[in-house]
Design a protein that fits this description.
six-stranded mixed β-sheet; elongated; 40% helix; two-stranded antiparallel ribbon; 8% strand; 453 residues; disordered C terminus; single chain; alpha/beta; Nucleotidyltransferase, domain 5
Amino acid sequence: MIDVSEIGAFLGLDVGKGEHHATAVTPAGKKAFDKRLPNSEPKLREVFAKLKAKHGTVLVVVGQPASIGALPLAVARDMDCPVAYLPGLTMRRIADLYPGEAKTDARDAFIIADAARSVPHTVRAVELADEAVAELEMIVGFDDGLAGEATLISNRLRGLLTPPVAGTCAGAASAAPAVLKLLDQFGSPAQIHKAGHRRLVNLIRPKALRMTERLVEDIFTALDEQTVVVPGTDAAALIVPSLAGLLQAVLDQRKLIAARIEELLEAHPLSKVLTSKPGIGVRTGARILIGVGDASSFPSAAHLAAYAGLAPTTRSSRSSTAANNPPGEETNSSNGPSSSPRSPPWPTRSPRPTTPRRSPKESITPKPSSASPDDEPTCSSPCSARAPTTTHNPPLRVDETHRAPAGQGTASSTDRWPAITSTPKYPPLPRNRATSADQSPSGNGTATTNKLY
């Protein structure tokens, strides 16, 4: 953590390619400088000198310490100004706490300066690395770019080789030196077949001594099995040789860079310590050296493990039992530990009981009009009095729990279910059906209003 007790001004720089935006904030939170600043050494020195003369020690904080932010940091170090940088993710999270949603250079520069003033533990000190580590960082970054370029060219090469002949070189390792040498000379199946077996063996033998005969035999076997010509084969013959030569050049350049990385790593005092660990090679050791250095900035090994994402994270909220989980792993339950296995993502329901479908012969037929009230259903709703159905859909059934008790009409059903404003389209009642007055339990002939529920 940077000590800000003796800092007189916090200068935040939102760096850019041609110019920066500089905002200086005093320890009281008042703006002391807020202007655009050209990316030139004389202008940077002029601004830093004015701020030092007026406020004393000036802490220069940038949002990006490399590339476009390297010149302001170098000038600030030369003028004995402490330097630091605010990581981009941390800056964006802090920016959400400030009013407004605009994304401007002035606002970003103010947030960088004010974050260094109010929450100094979020900024990181930029230590002056030695020449070997600086060179190693630049070369490793260039090697990363070459690795991505090699992958891109290899994928394009496989995409061009697969349609013309799927079993020739597309199935083999297209990045192998022998295959690249072959594709550089002959870019189409016709050219390979015309070259002949002996010429191909003499061509790729220096690149693959053990697999020469087997590789050539596989190529000609695939050529003999395919009798059709895929459209676009002639066009691919013009592109494949250039891509093969470009991929071989990138791979050769990576070999030279790997040798230089190994030389720089061996010259560092910590190289033997890093490479002695299982699984750490030249490139991994170089990355550890660039990212961590000699680990002197970490107070203990626990801090280093937390920085690497290896330390467990404690999750505890209110009455929940505290649990230590690996970083990025969520707890099983927010209310406490559970011994039962994790539940499936979708709840499972027991299958609903199915009702056997009536056959056309078992359809309900209307009863004659002289039927007694005891033979009629106890529910006065239209659901209990159905006409003969002529469709293939099963008849609507009324569950026993939904029927009204005998002698109560529809009182209990209306109390249980709310009234429906729109009546569903049920089959019409037969004209010779007994009326509600004939079915009244009281026998006084009073008609009862037929309601759906």
